[in-house]
Amino acid sequence: MKKGIAASKGYAIGKVLLQKHEEIIITDSKIKDVEAEKAVLQNALDASKEQLQKIKAKAVESMGQEKAEVFEAHITLLDDPEFTGGMMLEIESNSINSLKAVDNITNTFVMIFEAMENTYMRERAADIKDVSKRIIANLAGKGGEDLGITEENTIVVAEDLTPSDTAQLDRTKVVAFLTNIGGRTSHSAIMARTLEIPAIVGLKDITTSVKTGDSIIVDGIEGICIINPDQSVIDEYMAKKEIFIAKEEELKKLIGVKTKTKSGKRIEVCGNIGQPEDVDNVLAYGGDGVGLFRTEFLYMDRESAPTEEEQYNSYKYVLEKTEGKQVVIRTLDIGGDKTLPYLPLPEEMNPFLGYRAIRLCLDRKDIFRVQIRALLRASIHGNLAVMFPMISGLEEFQAAKEFVEECKVELKAEGIAYSDTIQWGIMVEIPAAAVCADELAKHVDFFSIGTNDLIQYTLAADRMSEKVAYLYNPMHPAVLRLIKMTIDGAHKHGKWVGMCGEMAGDEAAIATLVEYGLDEFSMSATSILTAKKIIIEQK
Ligand code: PEP
Ligand code: MG
């Protein structure tokens, strides 16, 4: 048995097809005819483009236009003046051969991406490697080859699968894949989820543990695979697979169904997003809207803060896509574990208790103004609610609201429109806010309970520390009481309450939260249908 990272759920039982890793030797021999070498590279680039166009067309068919866009990005890379232009320049300036030029520039790009803090951006290095691998294969005369899959129930095992390899997998034959490297947010993992084939990545040495033809079980839920299993184990997994498929089919029926408890209470089940495009997944899983847009992700992996125009476009995208469904956008929650290279924060002993989120925004109005103006401007494009993070008391909410009024006056003077129906709320993630919820509720339009922080502050158990993870318990009576107080406090004044911390998608907590009267649950897109199912089973 081998354990890796469960990248796409489901079960598969099949035969291994081991992808050989063909090494292409790159030497740094010098060339004499620069122009001829550049022409060789240009031919390889043209061939790569042609292949990628075909792959993209195939991907559009198998996983839809949006997911296939990654190949458009690959095609664009082939024309990128710094990427392929840089390769040409390498040949010209250093008289090196084209293979070496591709290798040099790729290494530089990969190093830049891999050094980025954001996991998503870091994993984009895989796209660069993918394009580069294709160019190199074409230069070596080995381009355009497919994976050679002819048998049904094939389980592809490889060092890594590039996005283009993944897109070409024939779903009628390939039932799962396993790789040595990769993470949950690598493109091959994302694509496996879109194609709905089980996958385990990061297995480290699976390619040396199996050979082509071995029989293998893939458990994409636990992230384990069993090599050459006994018949009894096969039977056990066959049964698990059947139950899983039946459950998934059942869950899909809930897309588009309004979530109501047995007693008829309507509950919104929404998705959390970090980038505007994430909204597509929320909608695909039948989300009732967005319950948390963590806008700090717009500020990360860049050299300066996003401009008003950039932010406006991001918010507008989400508001338009959701077509009138509610979108809760949280203002910048930087500090704690989230830092920005261009915004140095003071060294603090306890950054989670320090200068962060609303505290920082009220101090740095220059930064806050850009975001509030962008939000106000975007508000005319949909159903917007805005919330402030880390509110500990009324003064902070009032100060934030006063600043919003200032921004409205500015916009009005400039003749720029905004909506009068935006709802203004707060995250309840500091125990003080939960305890004073009945007071705060008189002033806000809604609450959203941020249990990720609320739990750590209530139990004095750092959410990042493995050592005290045993104390970090969402079902601790103190946490539950604070949640109940928050919901009761809001309802006393006719306000609604959502929850956007991980606890909202926790299957073990949902029944209790429904019983307490929570009005809205917001979670990662893939948890929406399971949550809906549990909610409709409640009284
Ligand atoms: C929370 O604290 O529960 C929350 C949703 O915010 P974050 O995880 O971004 O701190
Ligand atoms: Mg928080």
Automatic annotation (TrEMBL):
Catalytic-site annotation from UniProt: H187, C500
Binding locations of Mg(2+): E429, D453
An annotated Gene Ontology molecular function: phosphoenolpyruvate-protein phosphotransferase activity
Ranges where the PEP-utilising enzyme C-terminal domain occurs: 250-536
Cofactor: Mg(2+)
Keywords: Coiled coil, Cytoplasm, Kinase, Magnesium, Metal-binding, Phosphotransferase system, Pyruvate, Sugar transport, Transferase, Transport
GO BP term (any one): phosphoenolpyruvate-dependent sugar phosphotransferase system
Catalytic EC class: transferase
Presence of the UniProt keyword Iron-sulfur in the record: no
Positions annotated to bind phosphoenolpyruvate: R294, R330, N452, D453, R463
Cellular location(s): Cytoplasm
PEP-utilising enzyme mobile domain location: 151-223
Listed name of the protein: Phosphoenolpyruvate-protein phosphotransferase
Purpose: General (non sugar-specific) component of the phosphoenolpyruvate-dependent sugar phosphotransferase system (sugar PTS). This major carbohydrate active-transport system catalyzes the phosphorylation of incoming sugar substrates concomitantly with their translocation across the cell membrane. Enzyme I transfers the phosphoryl group from phosphoenolpyruvate (PEP) to the phosphoryl carrier protein (HPr).
Coiled coil feature spans: 31-58
Residue ranges of domain Phosphotransferase system enzyme I N-terminal in the record: 3-124
Source organism superkingdom: Bacteria
